[in-house]
Design brief:
Length: 410
């Protein structure tokens, strides 16, 4: 490629948001450079869940190689369990496969992918757009800069301001072998004594285990021990459905302890660890944080677009990319700001406002305990939880939906 080749748009980051935006723009005749600075074969640390809401919006996502899920097991902190049969399935992908699928679509649409890590700066004191430069000295020029380079985006810090630790979450976990047979369930377990939850997401050839919690209260040693307890419990429950998920809630049993130690020993010899940061913006930040102008835009995690309750961000990555592309192709790039606010901004702000109460106390116990207890007894609550997991039930009218079924503490 010739030095300083000119493009209409420079997109930094080839995850779901960047690749989706590149595909949409390229199909509209825009000359796009998409920069993928990740080492080959290194996936983003992510559970890989894609909601049924996203699959309904973009059915072609099912063409990516993944596992569809029609039932979820949900555990309360005290150990009670409810099974939710979903009305519409969601999917779980390896992020390496999912990201490659979306990047290939961008290439086929005409986007030019550059496998380089680059720095960016205004060109000509801002009069001439933006320039991306690789360490080799090669550079690329573009009229609009799009940052889709994740929660740690240096471009986002520069253009929109850094987020405090209180507005960031941490997700970490392990990729582990599938249990024998084809009965590996998808599990979401709210944490005993902590804000957040653990998950077990079976993929085609392994399980992604993880924990998501707030960064300002993060204690790696304690949370890692809790995650190992969850992982061992997951395999143990597969062998004995009566066994508790959390071994700390089990009655004393030397035989059980020995078996748990054996399971953990085998797991430690076969797992791969991962970790990532996830934005979890406060309600006030949603009111003031701007993520676009007529010359630049932030997408997905770089913009802070993740559900503050669950950390789910793939839907918002794809939708923000779509909204930006629509604004750009309409000749009103700056309208992206009003488009995302009108589309999902209120929903994410509501989730941020609810988060503290969701993980707080209700009737003398964690609300998540009460929620699971109600769901076990009440089909209306189970239905609302199914819709929430699927992404079809929003937070803005969640209070009303639950009130119609039972009791809601907000």
């Amino acid at each position: 490629m010739a030095e300083s080749e000119k493009f209409d748009a420079l997109i930094i980051g080839a995850g779901p948001a960047g690749s989706f935006a590149a595909e949409r723009l390229a199909r509209g005749g825009v000359r796009v450079a998409l920069f993928d600075g990740r080492p080959a074969g290194e996936p983003k640390a992510c559970g890989g869940g894609v909601t049924s809401k996203a699959l309904k919006a973009w059915p072609h996502l099912l063409e990516a190689l993944g596992r569809t899920v029609e039932e979820v097991e949900m555990y309360a902190p005290a150990g009670a369990r409810v099974r939710l049969k979903l009305d519409a399935p969601f999917a779980i992908y390896s992020r390496a496969a999912f990201d490659s699928y979306l990047r290939d679509r961008a290439i086929h649409a005409g986007a030019h992918v550059v496998p380089e890590r680059v720095s960016v700066a205004l060109d000509g004191n801002g009069r001439d757009g933006w320039r991306a430069r690789a360490r080799s000295g090669e550079s690329w020029h573009g009229g609009v800069l799009v940052a889709a380079d994740g929660a740690n985006s240096p471009i986002a810090r520069r253009l929109a301001g850094a987020l405090p630790n209180a507005e960031m979450e941490v997700a970490f976990g392990y990729r582990a072998p599938l249990p024998k047979g084809d009965d590996a369930p998808t599990v979401i377990a709210f944490l005993p004594g902590w804000v957040g939850y653990a998950w077990a997401f079976p993929r085609l050839d392994h399980i992604s285990f993880g924990i998501a919690t707030s960064q300002d209260a993060f204690d790696h040693r304690s949370l890692d021990a809790l995650l190992w307890e969850f992982m061992v419990g997951y395999y143990r429950v597969r062998e004995d459905p009566r066994a508790p998920l959390w071994s700390s809630q089990a009655k004393n049993s030397s035989a059980g302890d020995a078996h748990n130690a054996e399971i953990e020993k085998k797991l430690r010899a076969s797992v791969n660890r991962y970790a990532a940061r996830i934005p979890g913006l406060a309600p006030e930040t949603w009111n003031t944080r701007r993520v676009g102008s007529d010359t630049w835009a932030l997408l997905g995690d770089a913009a802070g677009f993740a559900d503050p309750m669950t950390g789910e961000g793939i839907y918002y990555a794809l939708r923000s990319a779509e909204l930006f592309a629509e604004a750009y192709l309409a000749g009103r790039t700056a309208a992206y700001e009003e488009r995302w606010r009108a589309d999902f901004g209120r929903e994410l702000r509501r989730a941020a406002a609810m988060r503290r109460r969701f993980y707080g106390e209700f009737l003398g116990a964690p609300f998540t305990d009460r929620m699971i207890d109600f769901a076990r007894l009440h089909p209306g609550i189970r239905r609302t939880l199914r819709e929430l997991v699927a992404g079809d039930q929003g937070y803005v009218n969640l209070k009303r939906a639950l009130a119609r079924s039972a009791l809601w503490p907000l």
